[in-house]
Design a protein that fits this description.
Elements lengths: L5 H4 L13 H14 L3 H13 L6 H13 L7 H17 L6 H13 L3 H10 L9 H13 L3 H13 L6 H13 L3 H14 L5 H13 L1 E4 L3 H11 L10 E4 L1 E5 L21 H18 L2 H13 L5 E4 H5 L12 H14 L6 E5 H8 L2 H12 L3 E4 L5 H12 L2 E3 L5 H6 L6 H8 E7 L2 E5 L9 E2 L5 E4 L12 E5 L19 E2 L7 H6 L19
Parallel strand pairs: 3-13, 4-5, 4-7, 5-6, 7-8
Antiparallel strand pairs: 1-2, 3-12, 8-9, 10-11, 11-12
C-alpha cells in the first residue's frame, strides 16, 4: 500500500507576505530600505515615481530623503546629485506646508554647509523656534564647522553664543574647531579660553585635537604675565591643576611629548602634576546639597547638632566609615564587628597624617555593644579619650554623617562604599566623581594585614601650572597609564630638566625630553611610585 507523500498531506500556510495597503506606506517602506542600504539613487528614483503617481507625502518621507541626501553631500561622486535633490526635496516639503522638525533642519543645514553656505545653515537652525522645536548640538554643527573652515570667526562665535543660550554644551570636536579657528586668526585670549573649555569637557584629547594644540604653541610666543601670589591663590581656590588667569611667561613655547611617572612627575620637564579637586564654589554647593538631603531624611535636631559639633572640631584630616571597615569580610559563622580591623585603619591614618587622629563615624548602638564587651572596652575608651569617635544617634544613617564631614572638612574618607546611592540622590552634582577620586581611600586586608589604596598622586586631566606650563593627556588604547602620552608645554627656564634635553629654545620643537622615550623603551622603564604623604585636606584653601 502506497504511503501518502508529505506534500500531499501538508496543510497550506495561512501566513501571507506582508503587504502595504496604501501607496504612502509602501513608499515609506521602500524608502527606509534605501536608507538602510545607503542607496541614494534608488531613493531618488522612488521620489520621482511618487511625484508621477501623485503619492501623498508626509514628514517621514521627506526626512528620510533629506537624511540620505545629507549623508552623500560630502561624497565627491554623489555630491552634486545629493545637493540638487536635497534642496528640491526641502522646497517641496515647505511648499506643502509640512513643518520641519529637528531632523529636517539638521539635514538641510548639513546640505547647506556642504555647499559652503554656513549663513543659510545657521538661518535654518534659528527658524526652528518658529515651530516650537528645540535644536540639538548636531543641528548647530554644520554652520559652526563651516564658519570655522572658512575662518569666519565672528560668525562662528555667534553660533557658539546661540548654543550656550539654548543650554547646550560644546564637546571636544566643536571646541577643537573653535580653538583652531582662534589660533589661525591670531586670537590668543580665545585660544586660552577654549583650552580651559576643553579642560572642563574631557579628561584627555584626541590625536586630532593634540595636533591643533601643537600647531598653536609651536608658532606662538607669549608675553603675558600674572602676579605669582595671585596665581597660587587661584590654583588653591580652584582645587589645583589650573588658575585661569591667562598666559604666563615670555618667549617661545617648548613643546614635547612624553609620559608621566606613577608618582605624577612629568618625564619631560620634571614638574609635579596635581591631584585635582573640585573648587571652592563646588565644594560649598556639594556640602549644602548633602546637608539638605540629610536634614530631609534624618532627625533634624540630631544632624544639626552634628553640624555644630563639626564647626567646633574641624581639624580632622581623615574621616573613617567605621561600620564599613568593622564589617569588612565578616560574613562567616564566627564573623562579627572587627575591632582589630578598625583599629588598624585608625593607627595607619594616625601615622600617615603626622600623628593626627582621624574621626571615626559609628552608630551609638554599635559603640554600646563594644563597650559592653570587656575585651574591647579599653580600646574603645581610648578612642573616645582621643576624640576619635563620633557616635550617631538611634534611627540615624551613618552615611550622611561621614559624607557631610568629609565634604565640609575637605579631607580624606576611608571607605569601600562606592556611594552609588548618594550619587543617585546627587545626580545634579557633575563633580561628584572628581571629588570621589580625590578624597576616597579604599582598603583591603590580606591575611590580616591592612593595605590602603590612597587617592592617585595626580589626575589624568588637562593641567595648567603656576609656572604657566600645560600638560595635556592624549587618548590611549592601553590600560597602563604609564604608557599614555602627554603633551608637555613649557617656557624656557620653567622646566626643571630643561638643561638635559639638548633642544634649542629659540624655536619650538616637538622633541623627546628626559624619560620621553620611544614606545619600545617605555615598556621597559620602571618608575618609582613611592608616595607616602597624605593627599587629603588642604588647610591653605580659603574657607
Amino acid at each position: 500500500m502506497a504511503t501518502p507523500s508529505h506534500h500531499q498531506n501538508a496543510i497550506p500556510s495561512t501566513k501571507k507576505k506582508k503587504t502595504h495597503k496604501n501607496p504612502e506606506a509602501n513608499f515609506l517602506y521602500e524608502l527606509n530600505s534605501c536608507s538602510k542600504s545607503k542607496d541614494l539613487k534608488g531613493a531618488i528614483s522612488l521620489y520621482d515615481s511618487a511625484l508621477s503617481s501623485n503619492t501623498r507625502l508626509n514628514q517621514s518621507h521627506f526626512n528620510t530623503l533629506l537624511y540620505l541626501c545629507s549623508t552623500f553631500a560630502t561624497d565627491p561622486d554623489s555630491k552634486d546629485l545629493a545637493l540638487r535633490y536635497g534642496f528640491r526635496v526641502f522646497d517641496h516639503m515647505m511648499a506643502l506646508n509640512i513643518h520641519p522638525n529637528e531632523a529636517s533642519i539638521t539635514s538641510i543645514a548639513r546640505l547647506s554647509a556642504a555647499k559652503g553656505d554656513g549663513d543659510y545653515a545657521f538661518e535654518m537652525v534659528k527658524k526652528l523656534g518658529d515651530y516650537q522645536v528645540s535644536p540639538r548640538l548636531r543641528t548647530y554643527e554644520p554652520a559652526l564647522f563651516c564658519f570655522c573652515q572658512k575662518l569666519e570667526a565672528e560668525k562662528a562665535y555667534e553660533v557658539e553664543e546661540d548654543i550656550d543660550k539654548m543650554g547646550l554644551s560644546l564637546e571636544e570636536p566643536q571646541i577643537a574647531a573653535l580653538l583652531k579657528l582662534s589660533a589661525d586668526t591670531g586670537r590668543g585670549e580665545r585660544v586660552y579660553n577654549y583650552l580651559h573649555k576643553l579642560r572642563r569637557s574631557v579628561r584627555w584629547v584626541s590625536e586630532e585635537t593634540c595636533k591643533v594644540l601643537e600647531d598653536w604653541f609651536c608658532c606662538k610666543a607669549s608675553e603675558i604675565g600674572s602676579d605669582v601670589g595671585s596665581v597660587k591663590e587661584a590654583i588653591l581656590r580652584n582645587g589645583g591643576g589650573w588658575h585661569g588667569l591667562g598666559w604666563i611667561g615670555e618667549g617661545k613655547w617648548v613643546v614635547k611629548k612624553g609620559n608621566v611617572k606613577p608618582n605624577g612627575r612629568c618625564c619631560c620637564c620634571g614638574e609635579q602634576l596635581d591631584c585635582v579637586d573640585i573648587d571652592d564654589v563646588e565644594t560649598e554647593k556639594f556640602a549644602l546639597s548633602v546637608a539638605g538631603l540629610a536634614l530631609e531624611r534624618e532627625v533634624k535636631a540630631n544632624f544639626r547638632e552634628f553640624q555644630d559639633w563639626l564647626e567646633k572640631n574641624a581639624d580632622y584630616e581623615a574621616i573613617v566609615d567605621g561600620a564599613n571597615i568593622g564589617l569588612y569580610q565578616q560574613n562567616f559563622a564566627e564573623g562579627g564587628f572587627s575591632v582589630l580591623q578598625l583599629n588598624a585603619v585608625i593607627k595607619e591614618m594616625y601615622t600617615r597624617s603626622g600623628n593626627k587622629w582621624p574621626l571615626v563615624i559609628l552608630h551609638n548602638k554599635r559603640v554600646r555593644a563594644l563597650l559592653e564587651n570587656p575585651s574591647h572596652r579599653k580600646l574603645v575608651e581610648e578612642w573616645m579619650a582621643n576624640g576619635v569617635l563620633y557616635t550617631t544617634p538611634h534611627g540615624s544613617n551613618d552615611d550622611w554623617y561621614w559624607l557631610y564631614a568629609t565634604v565640609k572638612l575637605r579631607c580624606l574618607l576611608v571607605t569601600n562604599d562606592e556611594m552609588r546611592d548618594h550619587i543617585f540622590e546627587l545626580l545634579g552634582s557633575s563633580f561628584f566623581l572628581k571629588w570621589k577620586e580625590r578624597h576616597q581611600v579604599r582598603y583591603t586586608f590580606l591575611k590580616g594585614a591592612l593595605k590602603l589604596q590612597m587617592p592617585p598622586a595626580y589626575s589624568i586631566v588637562i593641567q595648567e601650572s603656576e609656572k604657566g606650563s600645560w600638560h595635556v593627556p592624549i587618548v590611549c588604547e592601553s590600560d597602563e597609564e604609564s604608557l599614555r602620552s602627554w603633551l608637555c608645554i613649557t617656557k624656557p627656564g620653567g622646566c626643571e630638566d630643561e638643561g638635559k634635553t639638548g633642544s634649542t629654545m629659540e624655536t619650538c620643537e616637538i622633541v623627546d625630553g628626559p624619560c620621553c622615550k620611544s614606545s619600545e623603551n617605555r615598556n621597559n622603564e620602571k618608575c618609582d611610585d613611592k608616595t607616602t604623604s597624605m593627599t587629603g585636606k588642604r588647610k591653605e584653601r580659603s574657607p
